[in-house]
Amino acid sequence: DTGVSQDPRHKITKRGQNVTFRCDPISEHNRLYWYRQTLGQGPEFLTYFQNEAQLEKSRLLSDRFSAERPKGSFSTLEIQRTEQGDSAMYLCASSSSGLDSYEQYFGPGTRLTVT
Amino acid sequence: AQSVTQPDIHITVSEGASLELRCNYSYGATPYLFWYVQSPGQGLQLLLKYFSGDTLVQGIKGFEAEFKRSQSSFNLRKPSVHWSDAAEYFCAVGPMEYGNKLVFGAGTILRVKS
Q1: Cα separation values, B63 from A89, B84, B85, Å
Q2: Which chain B residues contact residue A48 at CB under 8 A?
Q3: Of A4, A47, A63, B18, which is the most exposed, with the fewest CB atoms less than 10 Å away?
Q4: Does A7 touch chain B (CB under 8 A)?
Q5: Min CA distance, B80 vs chain A (Å)?
Q6: Which tens digit of pLDDT belongs to each residue from A72-105?
Q7: What is the rounded distance in angstroms from the CA atom of residue B90 to the CA atom of residue B79?
């Protein structure tokens, strides 16, 4: 049983560059979440997919952020024109939509550093 | 607004001693409550959850938590801490509207001294 995987695990980029992260959820899960975690804080919700539909976006998700989940499988999170304030750990989680839908399983995260 | 407060940023306990990590929440309806643990370089691992029923819930790795509605608390406990328990612990509350997103506390870093 493979868990949630994320790629890359670390990304260092210069301010103004675009970056893209990938998340592969647990295969039978149809719900996928993105969270952002900054130093000393807990994860904060960014966006949520059920299958391929993006159903909710946080106010934290500015216009520079876009997420997709084509075909309801893996998801990508793109940040355009990165800023130093984007430096954080980006966490992906997945869950089923059945009785265990409230249990979210997290990936190891992608740590972004913007210089 | 829904929120979670973990009053202790750091806690240090001796190996073999008991542990209690505090969590208070603010939520307008019946909450679903979770404790996650995060080790360095690792993702969040679910320790235990409370949805309804018995207010004392058992989790993995010997942890338990008690839901107290009157105190809006969901404290995590372990009778005897092991050095491998050193990590950061997060309390979370949900579901938040449609989609079951979670709201997390700021975390408590547990240090274990031998």
Answers
A1: 26, 13, 10
A2: 99, 101
A3: A63
A4: no
A5: 26
A6: 899 999 999 999 999 999 999 999 877 667 789 9
A7: 19
